[in-house]
Amino acid sequence: MELKRIDYKLTVCKVAEASNINVDTDFYFIGKTDEELSLVCKTEDTPQSTVERDDGWRGFRIQGVLDFSLIGILSKLSGILADHKIGIFAISTYNTDYILVKEENYERALTVLASEGYTVV
To answer: Is domain 2-116 in CATH 3.10.180.10, yes or no?
Structure first.
């Protein structure tokens, strides 16, 4: 399975309202529930008025479109990283999954996954 590096720094944050989010940028993910409005974006695109924020994330995605019948892909990746004491922040979209790790663990995470047979591009 192929993993594609995302070559920019990311921020995970909470915002008070959607109007604070610049949707004209090329990378962002919004999650809204009855409890919060979360945003993952390039650090440089983080809104000024966040409720909470956590900088210093890097990420990669599973290449290709994942069929909904596939089972355990995210579980296997997160398990490998957990075995190496690397925490994750996962994002799932219609097409695929993204895994974010703290910047200080990024290269080690990709090295560990490559040693387990994943191809990193």
So the answer is: no
